[in-house]
Structure formats: C-alpha cells, structure tokens
Known about the structure:
Blueprint: E1 5-7, E2 25-28, E3 31-34, E4 37-38, E5 44-50, E6 58-64, E7 70-76, H1 89-93, H2 102-114, E8 120-124, E9 128-130, E10 133-135, E11 139-141, E12 148-151, H3 166-177, H4 181-199, E13 204-209, H5 216-224, E14 237-238, H6 239-242, H7 246-253, E15 258-261, H8 268-280, E16 302-307, H9 311-316, H10 324-329, E17 330-334, H11 352-365, H12 370-379, H13 382-401, H14 409-431, H15 440-456, H16 462-478, E18 483-485, E19 506-511, E20 514-519, H17 521-528, H18 534-543, E21 547-548, E22 557-561, E23 564-572
Parallel strand pairs: 5-8, 8-12, 13-16, 13-17, 14-15, 15-16, 18-19
Antiparallel strand pairs: 1-11, 2-3, 3-4, 5-6, 6-7, 9-10, 10-11, 19-20, 20-23, 21-23, 22-23
Helix pairs in contact: 3-11, 4-5, 4-14, 4-15, 5-11, 13-14, 14-15
Amino acid sequence: MDTGYLDLHHAIASSPAGVTWPEGYQFRQEGLWHEDARLTGPFTVLGEARDPHGHGWAIALEWNDRDGRQHRGFLARADLLGHSHDAFKPLVSAGLDIVSDARKLKLLKAAFSGMRCRARVCLVKHCGWSGEVFVLAHKTIGQQANERYVFDGACDAARYAQSGSLQQWIDAVAAPAGRNSRLVFAISTAFAGPVNDLIGDEGGGVHLVGGSSLGKSTALIAAGSVWGGGGRGGFAQSWRATGNGLESVAKAHSGTCLVLDELGELDAREAGSTAYLLVNGQGKARAARDAELKARAEWRIMLLSAGEVGLADKIAESGKRAKAGQLVRLIDVPADAGQGLGLFEHTHGESPATFAVAIKTAALKYYGVAGPAFVETLADDPRCAAEVIRRMIREIKGRMLAGLPDVDGQVERLASRFALIAAAGTLAHERLNLPWGEGEAEQAAHACFRACLLTRGGEGPGELITALQAIQEVVERYSESRFRDLGKEYGVDFGSHQRPIQDLLGYRQMRAGEILWCFTATGWRETVGGIGQPGTIARLLAECDMLAFGNDRAHRLSVKVDGRSVGTYAVRQRALEGDVS
C-alpha cells in the first residue's frame, strides 16, 4: 500500500480498469470515438467522483492541453441532463479537444451519461487532512486504500509548486535562519498548519508588525518556501489581492499556511471582516436556486501576515475598534527583535540587508518540498502524531505561562497558539533534521510570546486593556470639552469655567483625594461599546479596582448633578496611569 504521494500530475496514462462505455463507443489512444466518428482528444478517466457525503456525483477526468500542461476537471452528471452542452465548456476552456458539431456533442453527452466506472474519487472541498490522508491542490499524501482523494477547488488560488531538493532548502534557507527568533518562529508557523489541522484546533495566526526595512518580507518569503513559490513574493500573496475570491484562497490554503503581506494596503473598512472570515474558518451563507441554503465553505487556516500597522490600528482607521476575539485569533508580534538588526539577531557576519537578500534569494530558488515532506512523517501514523502533538503543546504552554501571575483566559489562548507553533517547529526540527539548536523553536516562540505581551499591555483580558486605552484616549482628547466639572459641589475648584457641554460624555470630580472620570450611560456606551459589552467592561474594571462604585450591582457610582442623582461609571485616574497586570 502506497503511503507516499499520489501526484495527479503524473497519474495513470489510461482509464482505470472497470470503465465501460455504452454500446457503439470505443476509447482509443486518440480519444473517444463513436463508430467511425472521433468525439474527443485523449483523456484519462480517474473515476466516478462525489463528496464525502455522497452528493455531487461527477466524472473525474485528466488530459493534456496543446502545450503539454496537464489539467483536471469534473463533468457533473447533473449537468448532462437536458439539451444544453454547457457542461463541456470548462473542459474545452482548459484545453481538452472536443468536437463542436451539435450532433456529435449529443453523442458525446450520451457517452458520458451511460459510462460507468468502478474506481471512486472523493472530492474534498478544502486542502488539509481528510481522515488519514492529506490533500493538496495537486497531490494527496497518505494511505488510500479504496479511493482517491482529490481537491475540488481553485488549484491556482495557492502557489503550490516545487523547486530544488529538501536538502538544498535546508542548507540555503533553514540553516541560516537559525539563531534568529522571528525567522525560526515564522518558519515554524508554516509547519504549524498541518499540525493544527490534525488536532482540529481553531484557525488563527500571527501578524508581524513593524516599520519598513525591518525584514518582514524576508520572514514571509522564507516561511512561504515551506509550501511553494513561483510568485514575485514566493508563496506569499497580498492582503489586497485576497479580497477577490477570498473563500477560494482560504480553501486552497487550508491545512497549510496562508502567507499575506502588506496589511496596510487593505481597505480599513474590510480589515476586521476579512481577517475574521479567514481565521473563523467558515464562508458566508448563500442560497441555492431553490432558495435553500447551500452548505457553507469551511477551512482551517494558519495565517502568517505582516504589515507596518497592527490589525487593531488598521481597523481603527475606519473609526471602529477591534474586538478582543479578533486580536486573540490574529496575534500581533513585534517584528523588531531588539538587537539593532531589525528582524534579525544574528546575520552570520553579514549586514542585515545582505543577509536578508541571501535568505530571500534562496527561498525563491528552493521551495515547496519541506512542507509535504513534513506531512509525510505525520501521515505514517496520524493518530499517534496527534497524541504526541497535544502532549507537546500542553508541556510547552505550561513552561510559557510559568511565572506569570493571574493569567487571564485570553492570555492562555495566546499561549496555546504560541505553544502550537513551537511544537510544530520542534517536530519539523526533529523529523526533517533541521540544523537548529536543541529547543530553538520553543525558545523562538517564547521570545515572540513575551514581546507580544509587552506590546499588548499586560496579561489581563484584551477587552480590559483595549477599554483602558479607549478611555485614556477620550480623557486626553475631551477632558475640557465633553466632561463637566463637578469639583465645586464637593468643595474642590478645578478652575474650569462652567458652560453648556455639547455631546456630554460625563463628569469630572474629586473624591477622597483622587480624580474620577464619571461616564454617563450614553458616554460609556460610546467609549467602550465597540470593544465589548459595556456592563462586562465595567465588571472587569471593578475587579481590578479601577472603578469606583457603591452598592450598585452594575458597578455604577451615583453623583449629584444640579440637585439630582445620576448613575455613572467612575474610572479612577490612576487606572489610566499604568499597565494592566
């Protein structure tokens, strides 16, 4: 039983045993004939195809065009009903020689309608693991006992291709990447796709953020070379180009790694929805012609991205705020390693620019062999591999969180993502003999995890950190224009002239020697409503003693305004003067 590749570009050269054509038809070397009339050029019948649920029956075909390029297509049996010959147009468009005479087309339709084949093909709508086999656009890795597994999607949506040998890639790309935490982490992220898909974890990824000329593109090209290349940026694509055919791109990269550059080029209004759709792993609901909902497209993406701005800042350009859930799924990691060499720590005696060019050049020359080779080692025994991976993630996560006090649930999710990437890099190091130091993949992930927490602002919940940033921004911007001074009512004069307040956010007052910023219910919703539930934000602040409140279960503080009591959310000034810990 073959446990290696089934390369559909080098599939069998004739129809499989068990293909029978209706009476009067002959399949010859030159193609399909009816008596003395030639109907098509040569092609190969791979088998009768359907999805894993037994729907969408079709005939799977392969053929070479006039330039010798191989193509694969599916002739849906449902499209053979009726008088139209449109079912053949996609095949002709891809270079299959088919007669144009109406009478012969009718004969051809009858031939395929009556054709039967014992061979079976399972059509898979996304790349990645399907049972114990791993499906790529043009290859299937793993044991296939009774039927072939074939990707039924846009094969050109991902740049899967191979150039050079595994050892050439190791020597020219993986080896020099060693001792550079961001490079090792990026390459480990590329290996994390099949690992994440195998254990069925949620999709997500990391976003390298930092100024220009740090080396972010180098990291993306190096990581992308694990799976393919051939484009200007190797395997990487741009965020902006992904907008068209987003679901096709996601399905084609499922189970591997989607590498996207230049988040800044994406329309700010689309940034949040695009990122969420990619990592959420589910397409939009669509109705069929009979108004019944079609099955949603699904995938499991490991995303590696880069840009000069983070996802939260990009979303903020549209006037909105990023949800904490979005920021946990696509994690900002500072690209600058802090050694004065941009993204790098060790350039092996070269200048950062020269070193970056060398890595890019090598990754654009040797690519697409390491990822499939790594999956082969997992496909030998996927169930055992999954158990090993889960244990590694638990152990690495425990080491990452050791020493961090009062770890929030969101930080645990962050640690799980970094531990997954560390486990993938460690497995790749062991199984492909990558020339990295012992434990280097885990050390690189841990360094990036610490940098992520520092940038994030602490180990507290993401909503809390983001809310404090929003409150501080509002106070700094509108303290004199949209907050009314209540100091005089408590014997303190802030010296501000009382005047009508337009678009009131709240009040400023002094109590027990500290300044309170007392937001009205409307002002509170305006300030934190785009971050999370206003009541939840209030509770989180109260738990950290950042909110002054009375006996109100909603954590509100009553203040006197013109002789009447007003319930407010009173944020302590000191809460805006330090990090959340």
